[in-house]
Amino acid sequence: MGLTAMALNTVRYYFREAFTSLRRNGWLSLASIGTVTVSLFILGCCLLLVLNANKLAGALESMLEISVFLKNDLAEEQVRRLREEIKFVPGVAEVEFISKEQALEKMRQSIGADKLEGLDYNPLPDAFRVKTIDPQQVPRVAGEIAKLAGVEEVRYGQGLVEKLLMVTRGIRMAGWVSMAVLGVAAVFLIFTTIRVSVFSRRREINIMKYLGATNWFIRFPFLLEGMFLGVAGAFLAAVTVYYGYFLIIKEVSALIPFFPLANQLNEISPVFACIIGLGLVIGAAGSVLSVHRFLNV
Amino acid sequence: MLRLYNVSKVYPNGVTALDNVNLHVRRGDFLFLVGPSGAGKTTLARLVFREELPTRGQVIFNGKNIVRLRAREIPFHRRKIGMIFQDFRLLPQKNVFENVAFALEVTGASPKEIKKRVPEVLGLVGLEGKAKMFPHQLSGGEQQRVCVARALVNNPLLIIADEPTGNLDPETSWELMKLFQRINEQGTTIIMATHAWDIVNAMKKRVVALAQGRIVRDEESGAYSYGA
Ligand SMILES: Nc1ncnc2c1ncn2[C@@H]1O[C@H](COP(=O)(O)OP(=O)(O)OP(=O)(O)O)[C@@H](O)[C@H]1O
Ligand SMILES: [Mg+2]
Questions:
Q1: Distance from CA of B108 to the nearest CA of A (A)
Q2: Smallest-distance ligand from the CA of B210
Q3: What part of B 55-114 touches A (C-beta under 8 Å)?
Q4: What is the per-residue pLDDT across A149-199, written as a single tens digit (0 to 9) for each?
Q5: All domains of chain B in start order, with CATH
Q6: What residues of A are in contact with residue B72 (Cβ under 8 Å)?
Q7: Which among A142, A112, A107, A143 is positioned nearest to A124, based on CA atoms?
């Protein structure tokens, strides 16, 4: 008996009251849940997009390397020295020498030997293939290598890195903005729902005060109601995003087999944790604000 | 058990509802609070219930200065007092049993306690057969008895009734007074604000008369009149 039994009765009471209110508010409850669902659905989509864009960026970036073409008449000694110099450029991870013969062989393989039939000399220069530690440093490293003696030309996927980074940044921004706007709308709707609950129970609340109910006893069912609205909306959003996502990646991977997609559950589970967590936060925020404002206890 | 020391209450709009009131209510008292409309009877009840704070003075209840009560202590103070109003204040969507049980529920009582205690008090007020009925199905007198049961269910030290017979016909009022009399005989202190002069005169209880916020008369087994 004692304190735990009392707490149990009280908890039972809280849940009963919260669900009575939810039922009584019918459409408004549904509207709140719907708004939470939509805002968190968008959040989920954005998060998954960013996740995949990051993964794609990573994959592309790891393929990104700098091609350094050498002047035609360098001695073997000069080539070796140049290789050392490139290795010492800050940010360089790996340097690989590709001779003009190897380059031609590669070209033969990729475009077909028959098309190079009439070629009686090798027009390709010797080259280094340079990888950087951080893909973001590709432009700078390339610039520094270009200044070294013996280098004819430096080439890399110019602009590709920048563009990719900009796209992910853009998605992330759009995600945050729409999430913030819709999140505020969701908080406001829950705020309104709880306000209606509080007003429809004004009489009851007054009587409760006369009967010596503590403030928390009066407040708690309303907070519970709001949190339930938030979590219910989040749950719907999570389910929709989950099934929608796996449907989409099935299609995409059938279309582009090697596209690097986040398809492991442990890769995407933080997204769902985020959705549910934010649902709870939205619900709690809406009801706390409403209770604070409209429940003078 | 209840003492008011130099209590004044000025409402924010400047109305002086109570003016330097001193009052001592002993355990087991049955006290009528009389006086013309606007004399400050309801205000006095509100101060004791800690719904309002006095502008000046102290209110001591059961050894505690309730002016200095912290916000979270107020509910526990209120559980020691049963309030009864002229307009009943029952919950229309709850039946008689649930209305009375509500007072226990807000204190965190167990279903077992509720099942035991509610029929007890309903028996005491003579409503044992009407537990399943809703307030709108009851007569005014019956509704007021539900309120008495609700006020009693937490074993309060004091019952404050503010014009409890205001909406009742004379015969029903008398029945209710007999109920209060019985409750008082079992040891519960009662303060009743009323305009029912015939009841006050017949009951021969302590009478405190207020006029314009001042106590103008305080008599054991007094009569209604509050002087010129
Ligand atoms: N909340 C309030 N704000 C401002 N003035 C108030 C408030 N409540 C009461 N008053 C004023 O205080 C005075 C005393 O009111 P109170 O309700 O205590 O009288 P009462 O004796 O209970 O009257 P009645 O017999 O009509 O119920 C009145 O002049 C009233 O207008
Ligand atoms: Mg009054």
A1: 5
A2: 1
A3: 71-72, 75-79, 83, 89, 91, 102-103, 105-111
A4: 888 888 876 566 567 667 777 877 877 787 788 778 888 888 888 888 888
A5: 1-70+184-222 (3.40.50.300)
A6: 214-215
A7: A107
CA dihedral B93, B94, B96, B100 (to 10 degrees): -140
Please, what is the average pLDDT of chain B?
92
Q: Are B60 and B5 spatial neighbours (Cβ–Cβ below 8 Å)?
A: yes
Nearest atom within ligand 1 for CA of residue B11: 4
* B1-19 burial code (b ≥16 CB/10 A, e <16): ebbbbebbbeeeeeebbbb
Mutation target vs A (from B105, B117, B159; most A CBs, 10 A cutoff): B105
Token couple for B176: 């209710």
Radius of gyration of chain A (CA): 31
Mind listing the pLDDT tens digit for each residue in B63-100? 999 999 998 899 999 999 999 988 889 998 889 999 99
- pTM for this prediction: 0.71
Average confidence (pLDDT) over B157-179? 92
ipTM field:
0.86
